[in-house]
Amino acid sequence: MPLEIYKNKRKFSETPEPKGKIKLPRTPPARKPIFVIHKHQASHLHYDLRLEMSGVLRSWAVPKPPPTIKSEKRLAIHVEDHPLEYAKFKGTIPEGNYGAGKVEIWDNGTYMLKSKDEKKIEFELNGKKLKGNYVLVKTGYVKNGWLWMKV
Ligand SMILES: [Mn+2]
Question: How distant, in Å, are the alpha carbons of 29, 71, 73, 102, 121 from that of 149?
Answer without folding.
Answer: 27, 8, 5, 26, 11
